[in-house]
Amino acid sequence: MWLLIILLFCVPIGGQVADPAKAVITLQPPWVSVFQEKNVTLQCERPLLPGDSSTQWFLNGTAIDTLTPRYRITAASINDSGEYRCQTGLSVPSDPVQLEVHRNWLLLQVSSRVFTEGEPLALRCHGWRNKPMHNILFYQNGKTFRFLPRNSEFTILKTNLSHNGIYHCSGMRRHCYTSAGVYTIKELFPAPVLRASLSLPLLEGNLVNLSCETKLLPQRPGLQ
């Protein structure tokens, strides 16, 4: 009778342990696409570490002359569009937040440009200067998938890979207006690969290591 000693473990290739000292940017209002003239506040959330008293903000890699946890944009303009990061004296730099300021009649708003499967996805079809819209249609990859007669916002509570694609919306106010937007759902991790580590010839009593390997998203380094 063959006797094998088997060790089974799961290895996320390239995976990292979540850094508790990493800064995180939140938005108020919580949309990464806004109209011109809107006010936006970016908040740098970071752990409370001894001696950590100031915050540095970056726009497209260039330091902004603001040292407070809140960065306020009053009456946003096209020039305020770009990639924002923040960092405190003792924190790891935050992941980038790409803010876009638009000039249009209709805008599809979401809270992030990339969603990981399993996360909720809020969609808001928003009119210029809060003008009420009706007969709202939401599209995924060019096909209508939701109609709302007046309410312009709804949430997909738990996304999966079938929600991957290009989204936009249209609405009526005297005329029909159409937004633009590209938002993608990413898989949590690719299908695992089973690998075996053994020496040949395989004899009774040999040690065999089986590893279940995959690769985690950089945005979710602490995923188990």
UniProtKB/TrEMBL annotation:
<dbReference type="InterPro" id="IPR050488">
    <property type="entry name" value="Ig_Fc_receptor"/>
</dbReference>
<keyword id="KW-0390">IgG-binding protein</keyword>
<dbReference type="GO" id="GO:0009897">
    <property type="term" value="C:external side of plasma membrane"/>
</dbReference>
<feature type="signal peptide">
    <location>
        <begin position="1"/>
        <end position="18"/>
    </location>
</feature>
<dbReference type="GO" id="GO:0019770">
    <property type="term" value="F:IgG receptor activity"/>
</dbReference>
<dbReference type="GO" id="GO:0019864">
    <property type="term" value="F:IgG binding"/>
</dbReference>
<dbReference type="GO" id="GO:0050766">
    <property type="term" value="P:positive regulation of phagocytosis"/>
</dbReference>
<feature type="domain" description="Ig-like">
    <location>
        <begin position="20"/>
        <end position="102"/>
    </location>
</feature>
<dbReference type="InterPro" id="IPR007110">
    <property type="entry name" value="Ig-like_dom"/>
</dbReference>
<dbReference type="InterPro" id="IPR013783">
    <property type="entry name" value="Ig-like_fold"/>
</dbReference>
<keyword id="KW-0325">Glycoprotein</keyword>
<dbReference type="GO" id="GO:0032760">
    <property type="term" value="P:positive regulation of tumor necrosis factor production"/>
</dbReference>
<dbReference type="Pfam" id="PF13895">
    <property type="entry name" value="Ig_2"/>
</dbReference>
<keyword id="KW-0472">Membrane</keyword>
<dbReference type="InterPro" id="IPR036179">
    <property type="entry name" value="Ig-like_dom_sf"/>
</dbReference>
<keyword id="KW-1015">Disulfide bond</keyword>
<keyword id="KW-0732">Signal</keyword>
<keyword id="KW-1003">Cell membrane</keyword>
<dbReference type="InterPro" id="IPR003598">
    <property type="entry name" value="Ig_sub2"/>
</dbReference>
<dbReference type="GO" id="GO:0001788">
    <property type="term" value="P:antibody-dependent cellular cytotoxicity"/>
</dbReference>
<protein>
    <recommendedName>
        <fullName>Ig-like domain-containing protein</fullName>
    </recommendedName>
</protein>
<dbReference type="InterPro" id="IPR003599">
    <property type="entry name" value="Ig_sub"/>
</dbReference>
